[in-house]
Amino acid sequence: xxxxxxxxxxxxxxxRRAVAIxxxxxxxxxxxxxxxxxxxxxxxxxxxxxxRMGKLEEALQxxxxxxxxxxxxxxADPKDHRAQRAHSTTWARIGGILGDLGRTTEAMEALRxxxxxxxxxxxxxxxxxEDVEVAEVLADFGDVQFQDYERTRNAASLRQARxxxxxxxxxxxx
Length: 174
Fold this sequence. Notes:
The protein has 174 residues and is mainly alpha-helical.
């Protein structure tokens, strides 16, 4: 809540304390799934706050620490939609940060990974999709391509951004 109010330094201080506690609990109780899940949320919230503060490399490090925890949870129960969504969201956030850093190729691959996890049937299954999450990930693809265009003035990146945005917009309009 502190980070939503704009008091990022204070939020970061509390989040880092929470992460330290969660790390200790995971160390003491390594088989407790709830402690690992709490740690993943603390790390993710810290990454989110750091990104909002413009500390992109540090945010990326936190999201990369989240990834193995969320992957393990998703693989433990492939039918657990919340675990799949959390795993996918982590990849999407990594992709967004990589895009912000100008690492377009890595960003696009991270976003593709997010997409494959959450929607394994691929883009062909999206023709009837009404899922806002799908539209958001497609918009993320567009954002990365547009950022690449702004850096390189490559017209192909601009065209790709437009295609992703149009696909996203079509879902939002349904």
